[in-house]
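= Protein in question =
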Amino acid sequence: MKIIKRYQNRKLYDTGDSVYVTLDEIAKMIKNGQELRVVDNKTKNDITAATLTQLLYESERKAKAQPSVELLREVIQSNEGSFSSFIQERIKLNDNNQ
């Protein structure tokens, strides 16, 4: 598993290859099937989920087709108002309907 350290200045450092990487490069790693973990260099906390959420946000921000306002409202109005709980609810609904 590849370890990426995130420093206080928000730079991301690939400890295996000893190079700084960007969010786009991390996205390419994931698309290529690379398993990775992102840790905060100071606290040593696992911040992989937060980093991947940031990656998704940046991807959406750059996309030509933005998500609809209706979809975003539906996510916010879901149980916890989080995207992950919204997706989990949708998966459960699909599983129950099959």
Remarks:
- Residues 1-64 form one domain.
- The beta strands are 2-6, 12-14, 19-21, 36-40.
- The radius of gyration is 16 Å.
- The first strand starts at residue 2 and ends at 6.
